[in-house]
Amino acid sequence: xxxxxxxxxxxxxxxxxxxxxxxxxxxxxxxxxxxxxxxxxxxxxxxxxxxxxxxxxxxxxxxxxxxxxxxxxxxxxxxxxxxxxxxxxxxxxxxxxxxxxxxxxxxxxxxxxxxxxxxxxxxxxxxxxxxxxxxxxxxxxxxxxxxxxxxxxxxxxxxxxxxxxxxxxxxxxxxxxxxxxxxxxxxxxxxxxxxxxxxxxxxxxxxxxxxxxxxxxxxxxxxxxxxxxxxx
Length: 232
Hints:
The protein is an alpha/beta fold and 232 residues long. The protein is 51% helix and 10% strand. The chain folds into two domains: 4-15 and 86-231, HAD superfamily/HAD-like (Rossmann fold), CATH 3.40.50.1000; 17-79. Strands 3-2-1-4-5-6 form a six-stranded parallel sheet. Helix 9 links the parallel strand 5 (180-183) and strand 6. It starts with a strand and ends with a helix.
């Protein structure tokens, strides 16, 4: 049975990817580094040590920690007052899940100050049980730590949850943690190696709501079969 839904934030709930892109390329320019669209795509959904190490590999002449600090600060300046626009279908999906008693939580690679900016702008406390930042765990996406902590805080097992993600790093993290995952790609193209492991790939959050009807029905039938076997 699905008891919990775990939402990524950037690119999934709110349309922040254009902001992350613009500020990334401006930070590159400020550091005198060449533009690399492919690297930017590969960095989506990552943070912390993973992002810093990847930056050091791509731009060995760069102070990667300083770069990430300046990049995050630029994003925060852009969203701190009004947040970014909510993605199409977000509140319809949240209402759908609430009506089915499915608990919701945010689990993001972003720093907590960035999560809080969107949380406050969109009054998300009325929809979510809480939020988790990759700052709170040892390993960021594509490792599953942030999602496993989200499950722990909701009091559910990983197999009782489902993750909604827009990035490949986030989808890898969910699957590594033994959690079902629906991908709603924003700027990312789904990795071929995990595409067939995903519960579904949807065009937007309205489609996720339709897919969830099938997911919940399938889980209900599984539960009924298990009960029948236990009683036989």
